[in-house]
């Protein structure tokens, strides 16, 4: 079953179960998928859909920080729940230790010496962890090892 079909099935079941938050979250993802398919006149692959979902998870993380600054705990909780739903459709997320290992290997591979080489590291690491970890985590780990 493709990811698109799984999203459709899950949306149907959330409607039957009257799970409004899940239904709305899946609808948002499906709208993004449809928008991109219409704009680019293509059929998206599962990998493309994972990119869309990963982007939405990243946006949710950023929004949570803003809600916390504004003291909106109700919105923080709702956004965290939406993020949990989205994470169900992504590949298993890597732990910080696993990402750290990948970054260390990549630093050796590309022979990075200073912080100036961070772009090179990011370019090499991101395809390896696509959809499995956040780019900001990779960046902060790389900065820890490059002075």
UniProtKB/TrEMBL annotation:
Name this polypeptide is given: GatB/YqeY domain-containing protein
Task: Output the superkingdom of the source species.
Answer: Bacteria
Query: Gene3D superfamilies given for it?
Result: 1.10.10.410, Uncharacterised protein YqeY/AIM41 PF09424, N-terminal domain
Q: Which InterPro entries match?
A: Asn/Gln_tRNA_amidoTrase-B-like, GatB_Yqey_C_2, YqeY/Aim41, YqeY/Aim41_N
Pfam families per record: YqeY (PF09424)
Task: Name a GO molecular-function annotation.
Answer: carbon-nitrogen ligase activity, with glutamine as amido-N-donor
